[in-house]
Amino acid sequence: MDSKERVKRAINFDHPDRPPISHAILPSAIPRHGQALLDIIAEVHEDFGWDFLPDLPPEKYPPYYKEGRNRDGFGTLWECSADGEYGTPVEMPLSDPDWKGYDAYRWPDFEVRPTEYRLYSGHMEGDDPRYYARGGWITFFEEMQQLRGFETLLMDLALETPEFERFKEDTLAFNLRHLDKWLQWDYDGLHFADDWGSQISMMISPDLWRKHFKPAYRTMFDKVISAGVDVHFHSDGYIIDIIPDLLDIGVKVINCQTNCMDTERIGKLFRDKVCFRTDLDRQNVMIFGTPRDVKEHIRSVFRALGSFRGGVIACGEVGRDTPLENIRAMYEEFMAFRY
Fold it and tell me: How far is CA 24 from CA 45, 126, 202, 248, 277, in A?
């Protein structure tokens, strides 16, 4: 079967011949490992039409990946320690606690050009029918943080002022306009992303999440689903409390840190209910383990989360600190694994 069929079968539990493979290579890994990493990638039978360009010059990196201080299209100033390392927002355009300047703020109007997103996981515009085309990296909670500031936004959530409600609705309206542009392209799936968890719990209570954020996600997901496009969702941290809610509103593929929630438990609760784009243990095994540890870890994760029916997309993040021998071992096991 071709790659597109393999991915669709995995997502829909329709017996793919093997787990499809998705890259997640951070731009900082390329200067660290150089041609040796590119040689490994060239041997991998990846299933999403990856279009990463290793010679993309740093001056074309987005502000959050570009060394120094750079401002993005929303007006947020990012500070980044090195090219390819994800930065930190240090100056937010709507950070005033009393909402000064909000009425004068003008939301940006971005064009959607899929190749802008190739720096991370190789999204493409769907012009090759052999591949499952996945686009977007659409945030909501993080977008609000980067406009308002994390602590200020948490205070907004606690106070639940009319100004916060307006801000939330304006952010949703912006995302819906942006989604209209994404949906003009021929995608099979669109990717949403918000990190909701710390290492041990959610950042806000599940009830507060359900009150303020689940309805907004439902509105966005409904637009995507009604266009016949799959919803993918990424969230780092401990989010087990809201996984049922995400499935309830239409998420078909989830990318979450199962290792900090107990992968076996996650599998018992949600296997055969959602497809997992796996997030291997990038805090321990992938960094400090041996190649044998990596392969054993992959087999354990795949068996916990999927089956011969499907339910797993093989994926593991590669950063500058991931040893080359572990990267090679990861892809060897991805290509060899069968249920």
Answer: 14, 19, 24, 27, 10
Beta bridge partners of 191: 232
H/E stretch holding 313 reads strand 312-313
CA distance 245 to 249: 6
Q: Using CA of residue 247, residue 4, residue 126, residue 45, what is the dihedral sign?
A: positive
Q: What percent of the chain lies above the pLDDT cut of 70? A: 94
Neighbours of 283 (CB within 10 A): 12
pLDDT (tens digit per residue) in 230-261: 999 999 999 999 999 999 999 999 999 999 99
Q: Which two tokens stand for residue 241?
A: 């409390």
Structure tokens at 43: 């041997």
pLDDT digits (tens, 9 = 90+) for 117-132: 444 444 455 567 888 9
- What are the chain's domains? 3-64+97-336 (3.20.20.210)
